[in-house]
């Protein structure tokens, strides 16, 4: 079975070969793959792996070079994500959270924050997560009201990952007019902030996912990242339904890698892995075309996302079946990929993307 990664299979939009091959792929092959199972369950090795990306200035590749990044566009970043996710879904997940925070800061009008944070985030000197998925919920779980010198925030941010690694997160709270205020919030217990114990998660437990309760927390104007109009996150979901595709396709490739190793060991020759590999490569070929479609073609884009998620889960299931009963042992790579596929199936999920994913599984298609 061919086990080609996106760097060789995607002809267009290649990331600079020297940068990736020497700084990323070599690091992943040598230092991440051997401990991938450990990174899924143990926080400290996972955090050290994150620091390793920072040592190579690879934590915020979408930022421009003058802010410490690689200046990758969406297609380049998907390839970057895919490579990391092939080796460790947990590491790819945390890097994506950090990159999301950096992108929000990059778009901020608060120049003091951007100048202080962005170069330091590229190296990991500053480590920042995100917590704004609650904007999809009504009534809003976190409310904000203007006060002298800033805003007062109250409510619970239900999902923030990276406790013990990230020292802050970009949180969001809804104002009375439905707009949202975004700001930097400490990710630590202190006055007006209560951080839960890490959640008991099946997949990527090492990422340290918690909820954060705010009780009249004062967000100073100096810590404000920006504001967004009412309905911003719903518009973002419609504008960017393909955002998790790098993680999804990387996990799919990881599943096929595990399947190939197991089938070779058991001396089983089956056409399915090659068929799935061809589908992964075709998805990469079609991805730039879908990316270029206007927002009005949302349904076509979100359906493509649903099909990619279905493909990822098929690859993960293939890894399990190829390994047989040993896949059920703790630490087996098939089990790790299977759990990572669960996480990536629902990451950033909106109602529309949930329906599209279910449609992709429909027996009546």
UniProtKB/TrEMBL annotation:
Domain Acyl-CoA dehydrogenase/oxidase N-terminal: 24-124
Superkingdom classification of source: Bacteria
Gene3D superfamilies per the UniProt record, alphabetical: Acyl-CoA dehydrogenase/oxidase, N-terminal domain, Butyryl-CoA Dehydrogenase, subunit A, domain 2
Gene Ontology terms, MF aspect: acyl-CoA dehydrogenase activity; flavin adenine dinucleotide binding
PANTHER family reported in the protein's UniProt record: ACYL-COA DEHYDROGENASE (PTHR43884), ISOVALERYL-COA DEHYDROGENASE, MITOCHONDRIAL-RELATED (PTHR43884:SF12)
Name of the featured protein: Acyl-CoA dehydrogenase
Organism: Leptolyngbya foveolarum
């Amino acid at each position: 079975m061919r086990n080609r990664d996106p760097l060789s299979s995607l002809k267009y939009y290649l990331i600079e070969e020297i940068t990736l091959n020497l700084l990323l792929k070599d690091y992943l092959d040598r230092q991440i793959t051997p401990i991938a199972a450990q990174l899924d369950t143990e926080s400290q090795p996972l955090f050290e792996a994150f620091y390793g990306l920072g040592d190579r200035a690879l934590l915020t590749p979408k930022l421009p070079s003058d802010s410490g990044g690689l200046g990758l566009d969406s297609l380049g970043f998907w390839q970057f994500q895919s490579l990391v996710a092939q080796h460790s879904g947990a590491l790819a997940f945390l890097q994506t959270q950090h990159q999301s925070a950096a992108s929000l800061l990059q778009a901020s009008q608060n120049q003091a924050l951007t100048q202080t944070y962005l170069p330091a985030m590229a190296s990991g000197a500053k480590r920042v997560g995100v917590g704004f998925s609650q904007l999809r919920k009504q009534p809003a779980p976190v409310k904000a009201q203007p006060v002298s010198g800033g805003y007062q925030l109250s409510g619970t941010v239900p999902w923030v990952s990276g406790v013990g690694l990230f020292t802050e997160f970009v949180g969001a709270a809804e104002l009375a007019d439905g707009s949202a205020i975004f700001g930097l919030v400490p990710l630590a217990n202190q006055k007006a902030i209560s951080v839960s114990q890490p959640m008991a998660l099946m997949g990527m437990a090492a990422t340290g996912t918690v909820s954060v309760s705010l009780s009249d927390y004062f967000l100073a104007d100096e810590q404000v990242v920006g504001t967004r109009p009412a309905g911003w996150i719903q518009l973002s979901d419609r504008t960017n339904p393909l955002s998790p595709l790098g993680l999804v396709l990387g996990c799919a490739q990881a599943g096929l890698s595990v399947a190939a190793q197991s089938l070779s060991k058991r001396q089983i020759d089956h056409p399915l892995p090659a068929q799935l590999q061809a589908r992964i490569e075709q998805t990469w070929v079609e991805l730039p075309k879908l990316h270029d479609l206007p927002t009005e073609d949302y349904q076509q884009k979100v359906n493509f996302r649903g099909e990619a998620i279905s493909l990822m889960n098929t690859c993960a299931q293939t890894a399990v079946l190829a390994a047989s009963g040993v896949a059920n042992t703790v630490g087996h790579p098939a089990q790790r990929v299977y759990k990572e596929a669960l996480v990536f199936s629902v990451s950033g999920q909106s109602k529309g993307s949930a329906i599209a994913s279910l449609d992709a599984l429909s027996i009546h298609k």
